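I am still learning, so would you mind making up any protein sequence you like and the tokens describing how it folds?
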Amino acid sequence: MPFALTRLRAKDRDSRSALAAITAGDAAVLAPARRWGLFAGLFGLASNELFVVSAGEVQDVGERLLGLPATAEAETLLLEPTVRPTTEAPLTREGLYVFRFFEVAHRDVDEIAELSREAWESFEESDAYAAEPMALFCQADRSAERGRMLLVTWYDGLNSWQTSRRPDPRARENFLRRHELTAGTIAYATRLLA
């Protein structure tokens, strides 16, 4: 189940023209891949940038997006899901989506995925906040020693994100172990556009 994340920068000062071009004809520019989600930045992305996440036949999606007249740059990372998602169905829920990249040794991907899966069992049960990890991806090409993983988590808003920084102790232990296996992280706060 291949996925791709494209960080697209539009030629204009905002991303409206690029978004219109991507969504035209039910996102025909992505075909034969399909849209999983189009995201605009709240924090971390410029006003003329989008995250375009596609699923299916994604190997050429970056080139197709770069070919749009509204696109200045498009950088694509080919991904595979670890424990989530289990389908290619597009995201539909409004709210805050945090994209968190981890720098990892590829040999640790399976352990990071399992630590995350176990932690989510109690992380998602909390009455103090509303959150759901939607995806944990690894790079499709893991031939190099090091690479990136991508965690995409939905929150109902920034307050839930802030409160979730103090998870259940069962989840916290796994998150701390996962942190030990990463060389660094960077996060972007976004909202789902389509």
